[in-house]
Each structure stands twice: as C-alpha cells, then as structure tokens.
Amino acid sequence: MEESEAATQKETVCTNEGDEASSQMSEAGAVSKAEGRWSRVKLFNKVMQTSLEKFIEQASFNTFARAFRPLYKNNPLGMESIHKQFIEELRRSIQEDIHRLIEEGRLESKLNELDKLEIAAKNNPDPAWRPSGIPEQDFSSFLKPYYKKQEAYMRLELKKIQAENAALAQKVQAGRESIAQTEHRISATVDEWKASVTEFERLTSDLCSSDDSGVFDV
Q: What pTM does this model have?
C-alpha cells in the first residue's frame, strides 16, 4: 500500500514537472515573439531543445518504474538513482548527436545564409515571384534570365578568346616579319658573297692574263 502511494505521488510530481516545463516553454516562445524573430540558428537550437525535453518526458520515472516494477518494488531508491543516471546519459548522447549533425551538415553557416537571403529579399523593393498558373510561361520566365546570363557569359568569354587570338595573330605576324627580314639579310649576304667570288675570279683571270702576256713578250 505504501509503495502504491509512493508511486502515485511520484506520478503526480512528474506530471507537475511536465506541466511546468510546458508552461515555461510557452512563456519562452511568447517572450521570443515579443523580442522579435530569432535567427534560424537560434530557432533550430530552440526546436531541438524543446524536442529533447519532450522526448525526455516520455522516459519519466513512472514509465521507467512500470517497465521494471519488480526491481522498483525491491529497491525504489536504487531504481530512482538508476533512472537519474539513465536520463543524464540519454540527454548527453542526444545532445552529442545533435551537435554532430550541426557540424557535419554545416547547418549553422547554411542557416545564416538563409537569414541573409531573407534580409536581402526584404530590402528588395521588387515584388516576389509568384506562379502565374501557366506552366509554360512560368518555365520560360525562370529559364529566360538563366539563358541571358549564360549568353552574357559566353559573349564575355568570346571577347576574351578573340582578344587572345588577336594577340597571337600579332605575335605570328611579328614572327613572320622577323623571318622575312632574316631571309632578306641572308639573301643580301649571299649576293655579296657571290659578287666577291665573281670579283675574285675576275682579278685572278686578269692576273693570269698579265702573266701570260709577259712571258710572250720576253
């Protein structure tokens, strides 16, 4: 009988604690609304914390005692200590999983980016896009800016390529002019060398003729 009364009192305490936690969360929500909209990171943390508290409430001591009633009857205080350790370990494990989820998914930076996009959208005087009800028109209105951006990008790339080609053409032309000048110098040098050989041959011929005429005269 005493054990039944103790369990009933425990249920009442857990119920009151749950009601107090719920009322505190409601008050926190009202305060947050009064202070203005939270950032998405704070809102995510608040939702995770609220979900964690509600999940922990499902593992109340009353539920724990019903699941292990024989152990509870034998040692209520020991069962309460085990339940306390279980709740602490459960809370720590869930919080670690949430923290790991935030880090691996880079949720904080992505949620902050969403906040920035929302602020930028609010500062934008242009009306937000709304579907017109005509799929073809909506599809076209969505793709047209994209293709215009692609066209502008391709035009820019084309100008860069044309400028690079023009620079290469100038370098090729300069190389051709250099080759032509080199060929001209080589041709002039060959002509000079041929002229020198011809002059040398003429002088040699004249000398030979002079020698022959001198011998004849003697």
A: 0.40
Decide: 174 and 182 in contact? Cβ < 8 Å.
no
Cα 70 from chain centre: 56
Whether 18 contacts 57, CB under 8 Å? yes
Fill in the amino acid letter for 101. Answer: L
How far are the Cα atoms of 26, 45, 46, 113, 132 from residue 41, in angstroms, in the given order? 19, 6, 9, 10, 33
pLDDT of residue 153: 93
Phi, psi at 128, each rounded to 5°: -70, 150
Where residue 129 falls (left for φ over 0; alpha for ψ -120 to 50; beta otherwise) is beta
Mean pLDDT rounded to a whole number for the chain: 78
Contact present, 79 and 7 (Cβ < 8 Å): no
CB 112 within 8 A of CB 45: no
Take residue 102 and report the two structure tokens written for it: 């935030």
Sign of CA dihedral 9, 15, 19, 24: positive
User: How far is Cα 168 from Cα 172, in angstroms, rounded to an integer?
Assistant: 6
> Tens of pLDDT along 23-47?
544 544 444 443 445 688 888 889 9
Q: At 206, list the tokens.
A: 């004249």
